[in-house]
Amino acid sequence: MNPSHPDKRATPIDYDRIAPDYDTHRQGRGPYFGELLRLARAADAERVLELGAGTGNNTAPFLEDLPCRLVALDRSRGMLARHAAKGIPATRVNASAVALPFADGAFDFLFATYMLHHIGDLDALARECHRVLDGGTAAFVTVSHDFIRRHPMNAWFPSFAAVDCARFQDIPAIEAALRRAGFAEVHATDVESPPRPIDADYVGRVADRFISTYDLLPPEEFAEGVARLRAEVAKHGALPNPIVREATVVYAQA
Ligand SMILES: C[S@@+](CC[C@H](N)C(=O)[O-])C[C@H]1O[C@@H](n2cnc3c(N)ncnc32)[C@H](O)[C@@H]1O
């Protein structure tokens, strides 16, 4: 992490470059989605801010299930261009989440899915979120170090946990930053997807680097891990245990 950049961790992911293909492997409505809706409804969310909205994979279903005035903010113009191309009825804003171009108390709910790990200064982010909320709720979807360490791909890629633990803040650090910014009632809820087999289809997604972790592994380790995994899956059609994807929703009251 480069501490001189408040909003940029040392992650070489150029979202403008990957925007056109982003939706090939990434969808919204993950296992966290019901929890986001529950929190938004409890906050009587009418003015909603989504941070790191990307191509809108969660903006669109959120608006379908909970019609509201939604501002979709992202630092990447390329990701917002994809968002716009889908015709999602939100206001798009190209800005950084650590310097929000909104008045104090402009929103009653804000959420972010898989954006937090790009933030170098969690305190700056938490302060901005607290400032723009009008006594409402903030909710952040991320992955815990516990899940990263238990992830089945650790068996095939020895650096998997080291790479992801270095870039995803652990849950207690996020909770502490929210409290320091003045948030109360800080909680974290773990959610999980139905099990899915680690079969040839899954191996294909890994080989296509469907999550950015695979871009960050040493190239030889990645190539060797994919080859070993593919060979093992070919023997039996799938690994003995399926994968259960986990996410953590950290939320708090402003
Ligand atoms: C992994 S993508 C997630 C996109 C979307 N939330 C989703 O779940 O599909 C992370 C997004 O966060 C955006 N992002 C990263 N740092 C940001 C920042 N400081 N402010 C606003 N957006 C940021 C990236 O441009 C990218 O669109």
Question: Secondary-structure blueprint of this entry?
Answer:
Elements lengths: L14 H4 L3 H4 L7 H10 L4 E5 L7 H7 L3 E6 L2 H9 L5 E4 L12 E7 L8 H11 E10 L2 H6 L9 H8 L3 H10 L3 E9 L7 H8 L5 H4 L2 H18 L9 E8 L1
Parallel strand pairs: 1-2, 1-4, 2-3, 4-5
Antiparallel strand pairs: 5-7, 6-7
Helix pairs in contact: 6-9, 10-12
Bound molecules: S-adenosylmethionine (SAM).
Report on this model:
The protein has 254 residues and is of the alpha/beta class. It has a single domain, classed as 3-Layer(aba) Sandwich (Rossmann fold), CATH 3.40.50. Helix content is 39%, strand content 19%. The protein has 12 helices and 7 strands. Strands 3-2-1-4-5-7-6 form a 7-stranded mixed beta sheet, sandwiched between helices. Strand 4, helix 6 and strand 5 form a beta-alpha-beta unit. The longest helix has 18 residues. The radius of gyration is 18 Å and the shape is globular. The two termini are 28 Å apart. The chain binds S-adenosylmethionine (SAM). The site of S-adenosylmethionine (SAM) has 23 residues, from strand 2.
